[in-house]
């Protein structure tokens, strides 16, 4: 009897361990269960819209991330284009320093001129180290000064555990990042249509000024073999192991996943795909309020009109566990009045979705019309209107 009782207790303990593993795997704690076979030493799954962490393990551990560092090189290039400092048509000189770099390359001809479009495409698609350095020298004057810009931008994005020493990701003593910080940079760069266009390319050619052609092949295999993959960046050095950061979207749910220091190339793709599949199976975007269904007005002070139409910038949704039916509340943050002049599209408030005391989603409330300052004719019209009453 005692042996039977002991056996029952052991079975109950084992069952408890299994259930605990399933619960932890669905929270943002250190994950076991579904992911306990991962070779990655740090990984994370994040909601691309809100930045909510869905799955994580050692996500703040500082490690080398190899060519994932080129996400920052690409972001600074896109931001320079956005500011008008350069354009995709700007030509840049391939220096001897750039063309002598080791690792993956576009095999640029030293002394030749290349367009920013070709350089950026070869960085995003084929992780070309030589092209990354040419872009760094174009924007920063030198790669060293460009690296200063990289670290400044990382600080602005809240990448508190990231430090860059070059534009390529090649191993140095003091270059590192984390799975969490990698999510932040990937969310930032996803706002650029040019990046998304290049990141979806599977194969392309770079034609050099001499007429020689280099074939560019995307290092992110998920682009071709995982139907929901939007973009991403790989990385590999002996020190960093096999790394992958990627974005995928399905049924309105957009996720960011990162796996660092995997044991081999195949593992990084399988493990990130497992994270995505878990996310899509577990979470859904619940519609709280459609932008077309929200119509309101706000009082105007000193304007040519006394009230102005306002609306939502986008549908208000929040990412929820499919099994969670918790009640949410909606809080509108709108001033009593706004001062003229204002332009259509100006943000005048926000609306938040709360689960308990936690804000789980927000949307901007924007003006739907222009507002001019009040003039004499507006004043007289108001006087006549009041008099008529």
Instruction: Give the CA-CA distance, first to last residue.
Output: 95 Å
Q: Please, what is the oligomeric state?
A: single chain
Give a short account of the largest sheet: 6 strands, mixed
Strand order of the largest sheet: 14-16-17-12-11-15
- CATH topology name of the largest domain, in short, is Beta-lactamase
> Outline, from the CA principal axes?
globular
Structure description:
With 389 residues, the protein is of the alpha+beta class. It has 2 domains: 245 residues, DD-peptidase/beta-lactamase superfamily (Beta-lactamase, 3-Layer(aba) Sandwich); 99 residues, Peptidoglycan synthesis regulatory factor (PBP3), Domain 2. It contains 11 helices and 17 strands. The strands form 5 sheets. The chain has a 6-stranded mixed beta sheet with strand order 14-16-17-12-11-15, with no helix packed on it. A hairpin with a 5-residue loop joins strand 11 and strand 12. Helix 2 crosses helix 5, helix 2 runs parallel beside helix 7 and helix 4 crosses helix 5. The N and C termini lie far apart (95 Å). The N terminus is likely disordered.
